[in-house]
Design goal:
This protein is mostly helical. The chain contains eleven helices and no strands. It is flat. About 3% of the residues have low confidence. It has a domain of 96 residues. It comes from Cupriavidus pinatubonensis (strain JMP 134 / LMG 1197) (Cupriavidus necator (strain JMP 134)). Keywords: Membrane, Transmembrane, Transmembrane helix. This is Quinol:cytochrome c oxidoreductase pentaheme cytochrome subunit. Pfam families: Cytochrome_C7.
Length: 216
């Protein structure tokens, strides 16, 4: 029986099919981003528990990595689990009404669902660990969370904002001991900047601004 399509026609059909699949995937990704709840700049975001970074970081001195345990080792910084919160709150303020969702989470074996304040579209690749390893302090993107009773977004997180940093990363570098320490930045000399760039083995800005750096 004769073939309905020649080999060249089959190739064209396959390529068209692949192209259509890519377009659909891209459209779904854009739809996911456009349909995501809008996070207004400087506006506190409602959470299952009104967690105060100011109280936990500034008053109690809790290190960022205690709750965001994977920030140094993976792309995702991690969100505090019920067990992490209960390390303290199985005893402290146990009967506080605002902590009821925490105890319900344990009782029902259902994780707390925190609302992402800093959320990027799926087509953007971002890795917390590489930024921390290269000297970018938490406050460069998240602001002075130690002064926030309720978490809010202080940076636009759009493409131009990210590129501005990648074009001139030296201004955003911190010493390793200052990366998770919330403090007002102090001016550093050109020699100190050069030393930090050498220590962190920063790539040239051309590589940092390549499309493939963030879109893979």
């Amino acid at each position: 029986m004769a073939q309905a399509f020649t080999r060249s026609e089959l190739l064209v059909l396959k390529l068209l099919g692949i192209g259509a699949a890519v377009l659909v995937a891209g459209a779904l990704g854009m739809a996911r981003w456009s349909m995501a709840p809008a996070i207004e700049m400087q506006e506190p975001v409602e959470q299952p528990i009104p967690f105060s970074h100011k109280h936990h970081v500034s008053d109690d001195g809790i290190d960022c990595r205690y709750c965001h345990a994977s920030v140094e080792t993976s792309a995702f910084a991690g969100m505090p689990s019920t067990s992490v919160c209960l390390t303290c709150h199985s005893v402290l303020f146990r009967d506080a009404p605002m902590l009821a969702p925490l105890h319900e989470s344990l009782r029902d074996n259902r994780p707390l669902v925190w609302t992402r304040v800093h959320d990027l579209p799926d087509f953007v690749y971002f890795d917390h660990s590489i930024h921390v390893a290269k000297g970018v302090a938490c406050q460069e993107c998240h602001g002075r969370v130690d002064q926030m009773p309720l978490m809010r977004r202080v940076a636009p997180l759009d493409m131009q904002w990210c590129l501005a940093c990648h074009r001139d990363p030296a201004r955003h570098l911190h010493a390793p001991t200052d990366i998770v320490t919330m403090r007002d930045p102090t001016p550093i000399s050109a020699d100190e900047i050069a030393l930090l760039q050498k220590m962190y083995h920063l790539q040239d800005t051309r590589r940092l601004t390549d499309c493939s750096t963030c879109h893979r």
